[in-house]
Amino acid sequence: MNKDITGSLMWAGAIIALALGASWGRNQGLIDADTTTRIVFVAIGLMVAWYGNRTPKTFVSGARARQAKRVAGWSLAISGLIYAGAFAFAPMDTALIVGCGAIILGIAVTFGYCLSLRNGAKAT
């Protein structure tokens, strides 16, 4: 099986197991509902950061594509870590705004950089 697919399936299984474990802990009275939600959201943020770390390591031909992958990787990794940190430490209302805002900003940075590369290619 492909190494990328294996890693993705491992992340999916780990998040499902973590969510089931947190749900079980909530049902047993060990943790509250807020902690259960935070555990899963932090795991999702770490997964986004992991994908951001993996993005520039995949091979593509062309210098502009490599540049775009580097920027996409950095923006995904940083926004995923901000998302995870926000849900780990900030109040839930603030974490939702900061975490989702970081992900949206990371996507916007990547999209904007790709558009600037495209416009630069058209100019030359």
State the share of residues found in helices, binned by percent.
over 70%
Shape: elongated
Would you identify the regions where 5 or more consecutive residues have pLDDT less than 50?
none
Structural class: mainly alpha
Cα(first) to Cα(last) distance is 41 Å
Bin the strand percentage: under 5%
If you compute it from the alpha carbons, what radius of gyration comes out, rounded to the nearest whole angstrom? 18 Å
H and E string: HHHH
If helices are DSSP runs of H or I spanning 4 or more residues, what is the number of helices? Answer: 4
Major sheet attributes: none
Residue-averaged pLDDT, rounded? 90
Q: Count the strands? A: 0
Structure overview:
The protein has four helices and no strands. The protein has helices at residues 3-27, 33-54, 63-89, 92-123. Helix 1 (3-27) packs antiparallel against helix 2, helix 2 runs antiparallel to helix 3 (63-89) and helix 3 (63-89) runs antiparallel to helix 4.
Keywords:
mainly alpha
Question: How is this structure best summarized?
Answer:
The chain has 124 residues and is mostly helical. It has 4 helices and no strands. Helices cover 85% and strands 0% of the residues.
Write the layout of secondary structure elements.
Layout: H1 3-27, H2 33-54, H3 63-89, H4 92-123
